Amino acid sequence: MAEGKNREDLKRVYLEEWLHNKIRDEALTDPDFRGFPGGGIPERPTRADVDNYHLFRLRKLLSYASENSSFYRDLFDKNHIRPSDIVSLADLAKIPFTDQADLARNPNRFLCVSHGDIARVTTFTTSGTTGPEKRIYCTDGDIGRIVEFMGAGMRTVTEKEDVVQIMLPSGSTSNQADLLEQGVLKIGAKAIKAGLNLSSEEQLDLIKKHGATVIFGVASPVYRMTQELKGLHALDGLGVKTIFLTSFLADTQREYLRRVWNCDVHSHYGLTEMGLAVAVECHAHDGYHFNEADLLLEIIDPETGRVLGEGEGELVFTTLTRQGTPLIRYRTNDIARLIPEPCPCGAATLRRFGPVKRRLELIVRLSNGRLVYPSLFDEVLYTLTELVDYDLRVTGTGGRERLHFTVETTGQDPDIRDRVRQLLFHEPALRPLFAENTMDEPEITVVPPGGILQMGRAKKKIIDERVM
Ligand SMILES: [Zn+2]
């Protein structure tokens, strides 16, 4: 028991220890940092040391971007900003935001190195959307830092002895599975790349064959696998200790996975533009710590752009170390809460933010002004223990709208449609939505097991089929 507790202690401080080591390394290897006011090699870094490291990195980044990227050179010129004018972290607010449209419009103008120095190009549209393509260039050094953080994030919730089964799409443009595999190997653990094309039984065979103790994957396929296997196999006795998911997870889903697998469940927040892995939920399960060695975070009011000290707002990141495509004050469109209180995990210098429940790109605004987005329904619908997955469409014209739920369950409960309907109408958070006189009665369609083909879909989204 005592030994188990020590292992927990090791895990809980890992990300913080990693960040402190990065800052000390910086001080050792970069004479400029040693000469920077407040620089030096702190024995036990404080939050002020972390902020100081950020300011040093930020000033370096601003000079680098203005010298090498025509986009930032023009942006700074137009706004009469000289990098040397930024002398505090608060001064960052003088620089205009960069948004996804800027990046999509001309990714080459962000590029700071020659094409010959690029090791990897990621071209993508934000998953689940049909927006314009964005492109991120990474040098070898950029990839090294991404892999290192993936390892550090993994090590925060797992052990060196773990065997990690990676259930991520293989062959995707971002190659998240390959980078994660490298990160896992870096911390001395073992990785099994299972992809998403295997059946649930085949995934289970791999878990047994390699003795997987950690499952890392996209929430929907892992949840589906659980539902397809649970009646047939004793999943709680397999030795899986941690399920680590890449996307938002309703509390009801989390509790369910925890119970069925008899394991801990963590989620992670990632963004392709920021190098995929951004933040990880620690053992306190009360928010995410993020990669503060490479990223600077601001939370802003999405309407006014004002920087918020605490509370809910849009996440805005600055890449402090990126060489290929640096991003300065990049708006993510994702809404989360900045948590000012110290984390119960014991991390004293790491900041944290609350779960990203609303990704702005996934929000559909109804004609009556109400907002609907997947996590609004997840919490309610996943209380049905036989639910495997669901899809949601919105149709309508002339100001009248209707929500269409397609529901896949494990069983043949003849009353399932009524039960879904009851849940939707009785949940206090949803009742007002259906009470609006602009909303037609929701349509609920039940499909047989396997009816919703969506393995590999990264995020649940509401399909908007309205005719305006
Ligand atoms: Zn924590």
Provide keyphrases for this structure.
single chain, 468 residues, alpha/beta, GMP Synthetase, Chain A, domain 3, 14 helices, globular, binds zinc ion
Account of the 3D structure:
The chain is α/β, with parallel strands linked by helices and 468 residues long. The protein has a domain at 363-464: ANL, C-terminal domain (GMP Synthetase, Chain A, domain 3, 2-Layer Sandwich), CATH 3.30.300. The chain has 14 helices and 19 strands. A seven-stranded mixed sheet has the order 4-3-5-6-7-8-9, with helices on both faces. The chain has a four-stranded antiparallel sheet with strand order 10-11-12-13. The radius of gyration is 23 Å and the shape is globular. The structure holds zinc ion. The site of zinc ion has 6 residues, from loops.
Quick overview:
The protein is an alpha/beta fold.
Q: Specify Rg, calculated over alpha carbons.
A: 23 Å
Structural class: alpha/beta
Largest sheet features? 7 strands, mixed
Net shape: globular
CATH domain class of the domain at 363-464? Alpha Beta
> Can you give the helix content as a percent range?
25-40%
CATH architecture of the domain at 363-464: 2-Layer Sandwich
**The CATH H-level homologous superfamily of the domain at 363-464:** ANL, C-terminal domain
Give the overall average pLDDT.
88
